[in-house]
Specification:
binds 3-methylbut-3-enyl trihydrogen diphosphate; 6-stranded parallel beta sheet; two-stranded antiparallel ribbon; Undecaprenyl pyrophosphate synthetase; globular; alpha/beta; binds magnesium ion
Length: 251
C-alpha cells in the first residue's frame, strides 16, 4: 500500500514543476574523514562531528515537514576500512541509538534500520531492536538509518526472499510493485531528493532500486559542515526542477 516505484511523484501531481517540498530526502553522509584531516584531527573526530550534523539535520527535516529522511551511515563496502575506524563508527552508532532511545518519544522521531544487521555487535542489535520497538508506537516523521547497507545486496536479498515465497506458493508473478515489498524500504515512498555532500559525483551503492526517478543534489560542502542553510539550498534547487517521469510537461 502507498508504494511508489519510481512512477509516481509524492506530492507534486503527475508531472511538471515540483513546487512542493520533497516528501522523502535521502543523504549520503560523506566527507567526515577529509573534514578531520583538514584540521589535523583523526578521521574519527570527523565522524563524531558528522553525528552531530545528522542530529541537527534530522530535527530540521522534522520541523519543516519532511516525512522521511534516509541516511547512509555505513555501507557494505565500509568494512574495508581499518579496524579501528570501523570500531569507532560502530561505537558512535551505539551512542547515537542509546541516546535516541531516551529521546525519540519526546522528539517524535521514528527510526528504522535498513541493511544487514547480522554482522553487527549484539549490543548494537539490541539497541536497534529497542529503537524499532519504540518506533512502532509512534507516528509521523521517520528516519531510515542505512547500516551495513548496499543497494546491490538489498536487491539480491529481495530476489532471494521473493524466490522463497514463490516456491512456497505465497506469491505469483513478479511486478515492480510486488518486488518493492521485498526491499528494506517496503511501504516507504521512493526518495524525491538525494543529497551527496563532499564533492563526490557517484552513488556508492546507495538506494539503487529506489532512486530510479529521484532528483540528485551534489555539493562540495563536507558533511560535518553541512547545515540547515545547505539543506534549504538543496530543497530550493529541487523545487525548481521539472519532474516528468518519462511523460511530457503538463500544461
Ligand atoms: C562518510 O565520511 C562516513 C562513512 C562512510 C562512514 P568518510 O569517512 O567517507 O569521509 P571521507 O570521504 O573519507 O572524507
Ligand atoms: C558512501 O561513502 C558510504 C557512506 C556515506 C556510508 P564512501 O566514502 O564509503 O564512498 P566512496 O568510497 O567514496 O565511494
Ligand atoms: Mg567518503
Amino acid at each position: 500500500m502507498g508504494l511508489f516505484t519510481g512512477k509516481k511523484p509524492s506530492k507534486a501531481g503527475k508531472t511538471g514543476n515540483t513546487a512542493a517540498l520533497p516528501r522523502h530526502i535521502a543523504i549520503i553522509m560523506d566527507g567526515n574523514g577529509r573534514w578531520a584531516k583538514k584540521r589535523g584531527l583523526p578521521r574519527t573526530a570527523g565522524h563524531a562531528v558528522g553525528v552531530e550534523t545528522f542530529r541537527t539535520i534530522a530535527t530540521y527535516c522534522k520541523n519543516i515537514g519532511i516525512d522521511y529522511l534516509t541516511i547512509y551511515a555505513f555501507s557494505t563496502e565500509n568494512w574495508k576500512r581499518p579496524k579501528e575506524e570501523v570500531e569507532a563508527i560502530m561505537g558512535l552508532l551505539e551512542k547515537y541509538l542509546y541516546e535516541a532511545i531516551e529521546k525519540m518519544e519526546k522528539d517524535g522521531i521514528r527510526l528504522r534500520v535498513m541493511g544487514d544487521t547480522a554482522p553487527l555487535s549484539e549490543k548494537l542489535k539490541k539497541l536497534i531492536a529497542e529503537t524499532e520497538m519504540i518506533s512502532d508506537r509512534l507516528n509521523g516523521f521517520q528516519v531510515n538509518l542505512c547500516l551495513n547497507y548496499g543497494g546491490r545486496a538489498e536487491i539480491v536479498r529481495a530476489a532471494q526472499k521473493y524466490a522463497e515465497d514463490y516456491k512456497s506458493g505465497k506469491v505469483s508473478r513478479l511486478t515492480e510493485e510486488a518486488f518493492s515489498e521485498y526491499m528494506y524500504s517496503a511501504g516507504i515512498p521512493d526518495p524525491d531528493l538525494i543529497i551527496r555532500p563532499s564533492g563526490e559525483l557517484r552513488f556508492s551503492n546507495f538506494l539503487l532500486w529506489q532512486s530510479a526517478y529521484s532528483e540528485y543534489y551534489f555539493t562540495d560542502v563536507l558533511w560535518p559542515d553541512f547545515s540547515e542553510k545547505e539543506l534549504d539550498k538543496a530543497i530550493e534547487s529541487y523545487k525548481k526542477r521539472s519532474r516528468r517521469f518519462g511523460a511530457i510537461e503538463s500544461k
